[in-house]
Fold these 2 entries.
Entry 1:
Amino acid sequence: MTLAGSGARFGLPLAALGLLLILATAIGSSWIGPDRVVAAFLGRGSETDTIIVWTLRLPRVALAVLAGAALALAGLLLQTVVRNPIASPSVLGVVDGAAVGVVLFLWIYSNEANALTVSIHWLPLAATLGAGAFALSVALLAKGDISQPARLILYGIAMAALAKALVTVLVILGPVYRASQALIWLAGSVHAAHWDDAAILATVLAAALLALIALRPALEQMALDDASAAATGLAITPAKATALGLSVVLTAAAVSFAGGIAFVGLIAPNAARALVGAGFGARAVLTPILGAAMVLGADILARVVAYPLELPTGTITALVGAPYFLFLLFRQIRHG
Amino acid sequence: MRWHLPALVLLTVFLAVLSLHVGLRLHAPATVWAALTAPDGGADALIISGLRLPRMVAAGVVGAALGVSGLLMQAVLRNPLAEPGLLGVNAGASFAVVFAFAVLGVSGFLALSLFALAGAGAAMAAIFALVLGARGALTPVSLVLAGVTLAAFLASLTQVLIVTDEGTMESLLFWLAGGFADRDGAVLWAVAPLLVAGVALAALSAGALDAMATGDATARALGVDTGRLRFLVLALASTLAGLSVVIAGPVGFVGLVAPHIARLMAGVAHARLLPRTALIGASIALAADIAARRVVVPQEAPVTATLALIGAPVLVSLVRSRRLRAAA
């Protein structure tokens, strides 16, 4: 790859993300021109613009970017571990498992006055625990089938159906004041984003990136088959487990703030492969950028397509992602 | 086993009768009998003949139809995981109805039913095209993955339509959730006989399905036109699913679980499997519907949730089964 070529391959997605950032901030109940958005970014805008941009619009934009990056990275990790591009974390029961965690959390820790008895900051932890429990059960079911992602995904679908049914029953069982809180969360709440949420998600993402750097040699080996990978002398199994765990934590964190946004973890790593090839290092850099751009773009579409109504962001990613998944599946079948 | 069939008939009748007695309030048999034979217009009579009887018929008929639909798909696709919910056929019917209602402004029951049939048929055709296109390289698990993805795609389109059209949301959200309670009476009494006829019609294909199970070459040697049979049987299967959706909305997992239990009881001969599957499907739907009324009293659980709680473990055990492992 020439220097100019690689510059374009990383530069173009970055530039696209930047443009989407400005566009996403410009759009809202009132249009703020890109020049004013940039001025507000730099702290030189008018007072109203600055308040709208920094307290109302940017938290949502930041959350979309961070959630997209986290989901994409989770997908890359999972696809590397199972060595198959059709795997993605959102179908492993993680999303609905997180919902079970959240509903249980709201059920246990809310009082008669419809208020939480503990800080809302514990919610992501509850989501992660729920996601982890369901991901673990999928992993246990698929034990020995780890190299057969189709099977893995089907277990995920079964567990997701189970989790959905559990959520429905829990929501009905719980008194109405708990249920309404649960429903607000389940519907996805990007529009009610706060900087606090973005900060937590950013922390998780940063920690995951550090872990990723430590895991990099092992993950690069995983691109080989198991035997050659073992021959390199690196301990593959603990690295695999760590990577899977990291994938679950990233998905759960994203889902607990942004709701169920499907197929990003599937598309972003594949798109990165198309742009920069199979090398793990380059893909690890590009995948989160593409994921962030995807979710941000989907969020913009979700806001403008049916304006003034807002579509769930996940429907947009599903409408793009589902056909892409079918394409990947079909290509894999064709090539045996 | 010779006693299986009478036992299943008894079970189905028992559950059907039970579903007339059980609800938020329990009614004595004498009250139920009086409500059915000599309705006095009182609250009990209204509840039993006006609410519970249609609900019982809906659960029984739709359960049987979905079970048989699943069995037919499993037979001609040679895939033990095939069923209208997992293959996206229910989602196709639902999307077509929502599209006709929200975008085309169709509201007549007959027209909406035709759209449901067209939607179910189109989804079934897409799945079959995938099977043909893969030229035998498609494992059962991969086909179900494709079906589930198709269902997710159609569900997203449906969601876009109902979010952008508040009127559609109000009219169709309840129906879209799936279930047997409070269904449109006129629709039920018009469609239920069709479903019964469809289930009966399926019995005609039993011999050909047995021949098909031995492999396409053998089936052709036995004089079965495999292409025509596949087309007819899948058309019948998607019709049963589409009409079920018209009555009850999308209801999953019955079509997966009922044929599976029937096979455990009666082996592989379709002449034996078809009636058993119909009865088991009806029993599962009736039992799930009764359970939905009682598990979270005084609320009512959606029957789709109770069915998922039964169906998901069955799906897992099927994916893990040795037969499927060999096929994959």
Entry 2:
Amino acid sequence: MTDVVRLEYRNVTMRFSESGGRGALTAVQGVSFSVRDGEVVALIGPSGCGKSTLLNIGSGLTPPSQGSAFVDGERVEGPNAQVAFMLQKDLLLPWRTVAENVTFGVEIQGVPRAERRARAQALLSNFNLAEFSNHYPHQLSGGMRQRVALARTLAVDPHVLLLDEPFSALDAQTRMVLQRDLAQTLKKAHKTALLITHDLAEAVTLSDRVLVMSRRPGTIVDEIAIELPQRDDPIARRREPKVNDYIARLMDRLDITHAALERQPAGDAA
Amino acid sequence: MSGTARSALVRNGTAASAALLIVFLAAWQWGPGLFGVPSFIVPPLSMVASEFLHAWQFDHLMMHTGVTAAEVLAGFILGSLLGALVGYLLGMSPVAEFALSPYILALQIAPKVAFAPLFILWMGFTVYPKILVAILIVFFPVMVNVLTAIRGIDPDLVNLARAFKATRAQIFWKIEFPASMPPLFAGLRIGATLAVVGVVVGELVGGNRGLGYLLTFGEGQANTPLVFVSIVMLTVVGGIAYLAVIVIERRLLHYLPARSVGGDL
């Protein structure tokens, strides 16, 4: 980790006009934070607090109402090659083979075919998927599909990864294995990542720092540095007794005991 | 379903289908006589078969079948292309869809076969009015399916491509077009059978060629077996069109689980 800032949000506010035209809904309000080179920052908060909105702003898909996001010091004006995102949905294209799905991004960016193939093979063997490179997505398990999605995200060789609950649709064991794969890859490739998650243990075991957001309109209400060894091995990290202290602190900050009694919104609108 | 269970299903199903066919043909042959139905109402199978040979030799049955098949093919291909094209254009332009939807709906509700006499007034007793009815009738299922497919694409999928800096053309060719293939083929399957309906109605209304004409010719002569022969040949033409679509569909959509392509046929 160096002190170079890779990703920065400067006073970002996002308002949506409500359906029916009655006023505006403020999803996030004056959010500022930065992620240094090689750092993994987790972002947690209640449903609908605008976590995913921040991800869309960072990847250049939606412009913020106020403020700006910066990647490598440059203001984000639209999608750019330094940032890649990964969602809970694997978004694999059913008509493409595993290898073709991995190279989807580089194909769009015009990387020559031979190099695309080489990159796909390298990534797939890295994730133990080499023998499946000519399979179609429907032939894979959920965990394998999500691993292919991660390979597709890495294939464009981004500086910054934006991860929106990437493992929340998987069963607990598969999730732990994929968390470890992700942690090792991030460390080895020295990638910077912003990880949005609902899973407090995931936030603590995978990151260097956890940001806590408030309910809508979302603002950053706390920042907790995770002082644990082995960021590249969340399974080992999970055994550290201090993990529970961090989780307890996050539960307090999120006011979990009260929030659980409230009715959750139907979907994460943000 | 496992491979062996599936092959057992295919084996048993095929045997049952074949048995049903034999029962049906036997009922056709001996049923009318058994129940005292006169042969000018329901001619037995053997009478229809000999009429088939007679029509082949003396009534240009193959020529009429060929004309109808060619009209079906032309109407189906042109109607599908037009339907797909309009479907893609409307799918990519919500404004155009909003503006045009009442007219499209009206045209969709209007019974397309009712246009047949009008087209014959315009174009005479040629093959063109028949093809035009087929185009009109094939157009809608194809267009609606393509439009719905484009509308139903996961916006996150488009965002994924956008995040990789895809151009509008790349989004179409790499996401929207391939994603529309399964619904497009569902529309084509419906279109293949409807094309026959469109062509036959056109031929019934006017002209002196095609199976629809042969049908009215047989009716005029009270030649019930010839009417049956025409119906059988029309079914054959429609069946071949439908099967051709399924064969192409299975080739192109090979990436989908086997059971979800081309129904159970």
